[in-house]
Design brief:
By secondary structure, the protein is an alpha/beta fold. The protein has four helices and seven strands; from the N terminus they run αβαβαβαββββ. The strands form two sheets. It has a four-stranded parallel sheet. Strand 1 (about 20-25), helix 2 and strand 2 form a beta-alpha-beta unit. The longest helix is centred in the first third of the chain and has 16 residues, at about 35-50. It is elongated. The mean pLDDT is about 90.
Length: about 160
């Protein structure tokens, strides 16, 4: 069904003025094994057969070229990376000549109407993937934009 679904999506939306690129994936596991090469090439070819005016991208999490099979496919016009903003400075050397966007970057959390004090401290909840929850007992998050997930960034970080 992937071919028919993708073709239908492109045909439906290709004349919409707000479509600026096509994404063929978001954090898919095939970036970690060689099936990602074949799948990425096939999906990109389907998109390009129906719309040559917009770039094809995929939102990736693996930012080491040798470990990312979607990147290795050579089929993407634009590399999208989710989070890991602290590594962006290294991307021009890692991905020479590639156009890159931050496909997801901020993972700040908040609960409207709830304000923790002091308000000038950034908290990371949870501090890492295997750590227990150590936030507010009522599971609220301050609306002062002072809490982020360990994989993301706050609104204030570059």
């Amino acid at each position: 069904w992937h071919k028919q679904d993708l073709e239908d999506l492109i045909k439906r939306d290709r004349n919409h003025p707000s479509v600026m690129m096509w994404s063929i994936g978001n954090e898919i596991r095939e970036q970690f094994d060689s099936t990602g090469i074949v799948i990425t090439r096939e999906l990109a070819q389907i998109v390009k057969s129906l719309d040559t005016t917009r770039p094809v991208t995929s939102a990736l999490t693996e930012n080491i070229p040798e470990k990312n099979f979607i990147y290795q496919s050579g089929a993407l016009d634009l590399l999208g990376f989710n989070y890991k903003h602290e590594d962006y400075k290294d991307f021009p050397n890692r991905f020479k000549g590639q156009k890159i966007i931050a496909s997801e970057s901020v993972s700040a959390l908040e609960t409207r109407g709830h304000y923790d004090q002091p308000s000038d401290i950034i908290k990371v909840w949870p501090p890492k993937h295997n750590a227990p929850f150590d936030g507010n007992k009522d599971f609220t998050v301050s609306a002062y934009d002072q809490v982020k997930s360990y994989w993301g960034s706050t609104h204030e970080e570059p």
